[in-house]
Specification:
Elements: H1 11-31, H2 43-71, E1 92-100, H3 105-117, H4 125-135, E2 142-147, H5 150-153, H6 165-178, E3 195-198, E4 204-205, E5 224-230
Parallel strand pairs: 1-5
Antiparallel strand pairs: 1-2, 3-4, 3-5
Helix pairs in contact: 3-4
């Protein structure tokens, strides 16, 4: 389009040259499609149609640049202090429980690091299964379904966020003590700190996050997560 523009010295003339070039392109485009010709039958419909197209281009360009910048962390959402994002509290979760020796902690970490990288890599699934047979004391994970009622989190500073990691660790440990599995292992001195919790991304949630709410650390309603009891 630029090759049809005359050489001008004045900025105003340059703007008008671009505007005329755009108008010529717009009219040629509309005339070349029979189903669009009715939109430029008279000057009023022509102005409305062209204005709507310009408005669409401007808004589309603005939104693309604006949200791309937010996604790339170049700037922040302009109303983040007004419209704060409040996670929905975790109402229930499925926890796959297994048991490992405390001196196998490094192997457990290796297993979950590999699991993070193997979500869509079937070539690593065999290695994961082989590692699991060596590391864990149970041939299969035991899945429990935990529900969180208001009594579980009404004493928290922000009960609207639901339960926290510390409560989940204790819930897993209490369930483990009440299950037949407990009798198979030396579990007399176990505490909640011996329960490793992994979120829905297979990332370990450390003790420094015990007071963090589940919904804020990638454990959401209906998720299936893992918990390893170290004996």
């Amino acid at each position: 389009m630029a090759e049809f523009l005359p050489s001008v010295d004045n900025a105003t003339d340059l703007v008008w040259s671009y505007a005329r070039a755009f108008d010529d392109w717009f009219m040629n485009f509309m005339r070349s499609h029979w189903f669009l010709q009715d939109l430029i039958q008279n000057p009023i419909s022509r102005v409305i149609s062209e204005s709507l197209l310009v408005l669409f281009i401007v808004l589309f360009t603005y939104e693309t640049i604006y949200w791309s910048g937010i996604y790339l962390d170049l700037w922040e959402y302009h109303a983040k202090d007004i419209f704060t994002e409040v996670p929905i509290h975790c109402a229930h979760v499925y926890v796959r429980v297994n048991v490992a020796n405390k001196d196998s902690l490094a192997d457990v970490k290796e297993y979950y690091e590999l699991k993070q990288r193997s979500a869509y890599n079937v070539l690593n699934w065999k290695k994961l299964n082989e590692l699991a047979l060596v590391i864990f004391k149970l041939p299969q994970f035991v899945k429990y379904h935990f529900e969180f009622s208001p009594e579980d989190f009404e004493g928290n500073p922000e009960p609207e966020f639901g339960s926290n990691i510390e409560h989940l660790r204790q819930k897993v440990l209490t369930t483990f003590f009440a299950s037949p599995l407990c009798n198979r292992f030396d579990s007399g001195k176990l505490t909640k700190d011996d329960v490793l919790v992994y979120n829905n991304k297979s990332i370990a949630v450390g003790p420094e996050d015990d007071k963090t709410y589940l919904s804020k650390i990638h454990i959401e309603t209906g998720n299936v997560i893992d918990a390893i009891v170290l004996v």
